[in-house]
Please model this.
Amino acid sequence: MPIKNFRWFIEALSPEEGHLHGIQRALFSAQTPFQSLDIMELGSYGKALILDGKIQSSLLDEFIYHETLVHPAMLSHPAPKNVFIVGGGEGATLREVLRHPSVERALMVDIDEEVVNRCRELLPEWHRGAFDDPRAEVRFLDARRYLEETDERFDVIIIDISEPVEEGPAYLLFTREFYRIVHRRLTDHGVIALQAGTVSLSNLSCFTAIHQTLRTAFPVVAPYWATIPSFALPWGFSIASKGSDPRTFGPGAVDRLIAERIGPDLRYYDGQTHQMSFLLPKYVRRHLEEEKRIIEDNAPLFTFH
Amino acid sequence: MPIKNFRWFIEALSPEEGHLHGIQRALFSAQTPFQSLDIMELGSYGKALILDGKIQSSLLDEFIYHETLVHPAMLSHPAPKNVFIVGGGEGATLREVLRHPSVERALMVDIDEEVVNRCRELLPEWHRGAFDDPRAEVRFLDARRYLEETDERFDVIIIDISEPVEEGPAYLLFTREFYRIVHRRLTDHGVIALQAGTVSLSNLSCFTAIHQTLRTAFPVVAPYWATIPSFALPWGFSIASKGSDPRTFGPGAVDRLIAERIGPDLRYYDGQTHQMSFLLPKYVRRHLEEEKRIIEDNAPLFTFH
Amino acid sequence: MPIKNFRWFIEALSPEEGHLHGIQRALFSAQTPFQSLDIMELGSYGKALILDGKIQSSLLDEFIYHETLVHPAMLSHPAPKNVFIVGGGEGATLREVLRHPSVERALMVDIDEEVVNRCRELLPEWHRGAFDDPRAEVRFLDARRYLEETDERFDVIIIDISEPVEEGPAYLLFTREFYRIVHRRLTDHGVIALQAGTVSLSNLSCFTAIHQTLRTAFPVVAPYWATIPSFALPWGFSIASKGSDPRTFGPGAVDRLIAERIGPDLRYYDGQTHQMSFLLPKYVRRHLEEEKRIIEDNAPLFTFH
Amino acid sequence: MPIKNFRWFIEALSPEEGHLHGIQRALFSAQTPFQSLDIMELGSYGKALILDGKIQSSLLDEFIYHETLVHPAMLSHPAPKNVFIVGGGEGATLREVLRHPSVERALMVDIDEEVVNRCRELLPEWHRGAFDDPRAEVRFLDARRYLEETDERFDVIIIDISEPVEEGPAYLLFTREFYRIVHRRLTDHGVIALQAGTVSLSNLSCFTAIHQTLRTAFPVVAPYWATIPSFALPWGFSIASKGSDPRTFGPGAVDRLIAERIGPDLRYYDGQTHQMSFLLPKYVRRHLEEEKRIIEDNAPLFTFH
Model:
């Protein structure tokens, strides 16, 4: 049993399950207009960003989450120039996008200015200067409305937002209507990537519903996953595109693309990892096929909070 | 935050991290001569076997653990007749082994008679009658000593024991000396499989040390993994053999072997799952290569307790 | 930080406060028609009865609760013959009542037969044979209805029930209407005693409201308290009567009465303890006076659950 | 079960018992040369000072602790002019001492400058300007050494320090040798008061050993107690003096002294509370008499940590 520490962060995973983290230091805590914001140093995972009581990323393993979210989609496009990031408060998604030399513009739109500012100040290991890159632009707006109103088109759109909890700001960015808006904002070879909830057997319905909902808006949908230990439960992602399918890239092709476009600094993602990520266990594939639910603005999906 | 429930099982994953489970019912609790034994019904995972405060398997996801531990090794052997199981108290490893029609004898040697008896009585969903199969034999002995003293040879040896905690009964079954004993008890095409600790970034050293230790005794060592959600952290396994390498089997070949030998009833393991399991993320491969430690009887490895 | 134990009982004292107990053994758990029933052995307190997730009594300190609840009221009556116990499932209130030689009949009416049966079987240290005393009678009925319908009159009525939680069986036994029914069932020198919720500063309103409500039905109301450590928060009680006031008994008088009627076996209650119990801190007295609320059937009071 | 909050402070009361507090805000956290220092706002108790993971005082009920510690001793002296405070970091003990108009000098000696400075800044409700009173003097020294080396004599010495945990700075201020030093520093009618650990039945040995140890150095020792809900367990105190015995003061006498010397602002302590505090339950008195242990520098007592 953990000893010595007396301050604990309990992340509720369900009404009957929680993840217990010793708090080494509480660095910042506030209620923004949109969510509760905590930055704490956790004993096993280092600094972590916690929104509405759920870990968004931790120092130890954020590289797994961000490399997974960004690079398969970026490599699925021949030469992405314009990239749009929904959310991505910590600036790490931006950091990974900016590794790609073809990128001329990376526009990050996050609704919560206070989260971004606080991450900028307290989590330098995440953004590593990405916010100051001349190609980067950050705007504090409702990303859905921005995409509805703009004429711009993007080669890659990365949706890096928190889970669709009932009281949170994210649930209208997981619907059929939103995915259609996103589809219209893509260039001809456009690709999107997003985090899609856990792939734990006890909780698959968010992941499978997002899959079916994406399929109503995109001809190609490629679900994939990664294990980010600070999340406790295994995590799902998805790439959707107008044609490109990351599952057609073999490990050798991916390693070549990484060498050309990114370089040697990745710690999680390479050809073998790429291949592994898009292979799903039998029970997950079965649930994906059996899922009938389409998430709509009028019939939103909420995850546990 | 979890509500309503007031009885909680806290599994300590490290001094700074725990997994919190609501207890629906406490079915059995005792201290055996070897370890503490609890069978509880947990809110998110159903019934679970807990030894020394660590979850061994739960109703919801034991199929992931047991299919992963047994079938890749069984399929790596042309036609396994004699199978030896170290540990495997719940009888589920036995259950999976007995799916293979080539099996003539499955000898399970577990040191803790009380654990096996209690699982036999309270966890029928695990053994599903395997203990009563005419091919099965269960003996309550120290498996290491048994293997040291017997002349018998086995086609497949599955090591299904709890983690090597300092006070527990398992740590001498994770050493170079033990793996040599196991190697001598294999037939010419013999294969072994074992659970090898977590592959979480915060805790890789057990998995990597076991890998290097196996390499001192076997020409082929193929590490692999699975995510068993009730374990909280992703889990590592390894196959070691005299020649057969499961990584050479493509998904189509595995699916054919499963159809021939096992049938359609598996829920986790198939060709695609097989392929996925043996692919490891970049950082895990790197740690495996960099690991120097060999576990020996005189220099045992202990995991956190 | 508590180590080694991994099973915990968390008693919620408020939405922001809990009491954490290591579970040594889970002896019994069930849902009765009225409440959840657990009998567990807790690390610091020994065996304990827990109803609806709240500790009712523990082996270590039940003597404090039961001596406090029973003897001041019993000694406030010249020679109690007929005693009525509302609730008292464990049989310990009965045990204390039966110490008094004047008692000819002790009728215990508890709504929950399963709780009483289970306590009878698993908590012998509580009843110590009281259930088998020829003077004792136990009936499984709604005590309020019993008192409404009977003609019997009692010298002492002890109300030993759990807190008035919204979903529980007890809240209609904390109202003005109920106290009037109780008053009518008393003989001329009749006295009642009851537990009245915590006297913790964070939570005084139950205790103070019960006080004002009793005053609508009885000419004499004497609030008092005791600290029962397993409850975490200090606990309030009250005596109400048709005339007798325990606060007029000095320590010497109480010691003499104890010697005459009870003997030397009490561990908590004597003259000095009696005097201490009826003295309340300044802030409690102030809140008692300022309280305006009267609890009624149509305006019940619910404590936190 | 507490909901919504996800940050928790778990105060370990024993290896099998803890008190769980929701953290509203973490205001300050640091490791001083002597102990860990946290100032947090807890859900049920408001701001609280926590040293080495144990609550020292909380906004809701610090008045109970500080009025109890200071006033009985101050009133036991005819006209205290010089007062010495050992510890008392928050400045609230100083605040209560300075209510007495006879006081000409209140010297507070606390070993931990950082604790005092931080309390001064973040807990104004505690000191309420006491630190700036011209009669007050604060020095950051080892109080035991100060008392050993000084010639000064004091009318009242208040020992307001944390519990004698093994790793903490306080355990040498609970010994026979220390009490003798204190005795020598008193004027003829000198009185001391100190907190003496819990009086919970599960943990009485600290309180009873301190009692017997004080008796080796003082002719009059008067143990007393109070319930401070944020402490979870009931708390013990003791007054020791060269002759004055607070138990000889009746409630009327105490009320008159309070009116003369302090005024109407006390919330916990008055004549009735005084009388209540010095009355102990039967089992506590018995344990006090049966205790044989004397705490010495060479045989220190450590409380759980």
